[in-house]
Specification:
The chain is 7% helix and 35% strand. The protein has 199 residues and is mainly β.
Amino acid sequence: MRPISTWIARGARTLLATCLPTADTVRGPFYRRGAPWRTRLCPIDEPGEPLSISGTIIVLPDCRPVMDAVVDVWQTNTRGLYSNLFGLARRSNARAFNLRGRLRSDDAGRYQFDSIVPGRYPLFWPLTRPRHIHVMVTHPECERLITQIYFEGDKYNRWDPWWLTSTTIRLEHDREVASGRTTSTGYFDIALRFRRFRK
């Protein structure tokens, strides 16, 4: 069980996050439509450090939770490679959507997915993209959001063109005594804009 200070810190962070909408960034060239519905983005034996991300989705300005928001996630493997890099793989290929997935928020606006800590990859010389996860959130009543999750302490963050307009999270590390494996946990709360329908 996590100490009460952890939950207090999460509550304070969520309160602060509701003051502003989550920043929108570029989708990038590696998004692929039609990812499977699932909360585990890769096999249990996928190489890399296990990662669990969770959070709450709200809509501004009233800060109510958003139920049934679609969260579309894609990321690299531990070597910095995206699955189906050129978009040519068949959907029947089990690896075509590795480290990609879609899920929905529950009636309290909460979501959660399991994956691995992504790897870095070269952008254009001499820049290297830091570890990050792409997230697209859609809901009929809200404006679409495309954003990226960055990780605190990555030395390449400061050189990344999209880091300053994205959210950086801190990972907590839990080591399992039996397996000796470390699992990282991060929290990423999302604030959407209400969609104004034109008459």
